[in-house]
Amino acid sequence: MPFTIILVSLDALVIAVALIGAYFFRFGLLPMPPGIGQPPFEPYLYPVPVVIVLWLIILKALGLYGRRRRNFGWDTIFALLGAVLLGLVFLGAVGFVYRGFSYSRLVLAIAGTFAFLGFCVARAAAVQVRARLLRKGVGAKRTLVVGTSVAANELCRRLLAGPASDYYLVGVIPTGEGEPEEGCKVLGGLEDFFDVVSREKVAVVFFGGDVPDQVLLDLVLECDLKGVEVRILPSALELMASKIHADEALGVPVFALRQFRLTGFNRFLKRAVDVVFAGFLLVAFSPLWAVMALIIKLTSPGPVLYRQDRVGQDGRPFELLKFRSMRQDAEAETGPVFAQANDERVTLFGRFLRRTSLDEIPQLFNVLKGDMSVVGPRPERPYFVEKFASDVPRYVERHKVKSGMTGWAQVNGLRGNTSIAQRVEYDLYYIENWSLLFDLKVILRTLAQVISGKGQ
To answer: N or C: which end of the chain has fewer CB within 10 A?
Structure first.
């Protein structure tokens, strides 16, 4: 609640500064048309409190004060942009109907721009300050994990190494059936539970699925009496947290697996967007692609395009296209291997292509052909697929959808010679939570990485 109050206060301040600043920017810095004087300031000042309330209501309606928006990322930026546009539309409509004073539309547009930038800056700063405080335990709920199941250890790992959250891990009480996560402080055994809760001033307890049922029941009831929040980590969650959601059957709470979303009309819609997007890029930037092909041909012997067998949807093989960025026959001696940083096999122009991900452009033809999508799990070679399928749990589930030119794992830094298990986790999250907005977010983050040179 205090953080929400801070956000509301910052947003109110941003709106006020944006509205007042827009007036002085427009009529103080920009040139005025001949014969038109500066309008009075008061008509722009009086509506400010009403506009603040209106915009705060829109921000609230779009969930920008909910728990999901306590991190600053692309989702929040999109939501803030939507809130600003909605506010501008509403204010523009009011200004059109109201005839008591003629408000400048340019002032409104400038105010919207200032508000959006201010919202983003204020949110980013507030989130950063809050994250630093949370890492020190300030404002976070002191949290105890009971159990050493896979889910319990995974929670401990994320609380220790992941981004700052509302939970500050004080330690763990093992059940004796497994080893606690490395780096996690062991505070005692089950018999010491209430002493630990009292001594460490625990506010929240997470129970793993390996806690015996009767012990769990007794501890949960006692926690309820003492005002300690309880969270349960069912063993089913060891499958994958993002795949499970709460449901009910005739009033009885149950857990249900999320349904695969890319079926029927959704699949048709994604395919239509892929075709339009790929076709537009190929045609609009065809001179650039031709220049790149010519440079490859002139600077390195061998073909312009590099063709490689990959595994796509439902395990079907296809031939992936790339602009060649390595010397010809680069794997003649080594066989299939992942590219490394500063790989000596990469040509001079190839380094630029790989750093900007422009070597992937010919895959737009793969998209038009239907072998790939613009966004999806990156395809691997048959050699690696066979290896990973036996070594990495749920790896084959990546092939439920078409492979992508870019993916959720890649924009989160998991490319090249990185953890396959982590890539699978991100890929499955994308598959289970797909939407066109999700695809747009991945594309925009990919473009940002290409522009910044972090595409390699």
So the answer is: N
Domains and CATH numbers, the chain: 2-135 (no CATH), 141-238 (3.40.50.720), 264-452 (no CATH)
CA distances from 146 to 121, 151, 155, 167, 411 (A): 39, 11, 11, 14, 34
Q: What is the pLDDT of residues 4-56, one digit of tens each?
A: 888 899 999 999 999 999 988 888 777 666 666 678 888 888 889 989 998 99
Alpha carbons 206 and 154: distance in angstroms, whole number: 12
Mean pLDDT for 275-293 is: 89
pLDDT for position 404: 93
- Tokens representing 429? 């999250």
The whole-angstrom separation of Cα 324 and Cα 328 is 8
For the segment 259-279, the average pLDDT, to the nearest whole number, is 83
Dist. CA 68–CA 201, nearest whole Å: 26
Q: Output the six-digit token pair for 222.
A: 């006692």
Residue 446 CA: distances (Å) to CA of 224, 340, 405, 441: 47, 20, 10, 9
- Greater confidence (244 vs 219) lies with 219
289 class by beta-carbon count within 10 Å (0-12 exposed, 13-18 middle, 19+ buried): middle
Query: What is the reported pLDDT for 5?
Result: 87
Backbone φ and ψ for 389, nearest 5 degrees, come out as -60, -30
Task: Please return the burial class of 326, using the count of CB atoms within 10 Å of its CB with bins 0-12, 13-18 and 19+.
Answer: buried
CA distance 445 to 291: 26
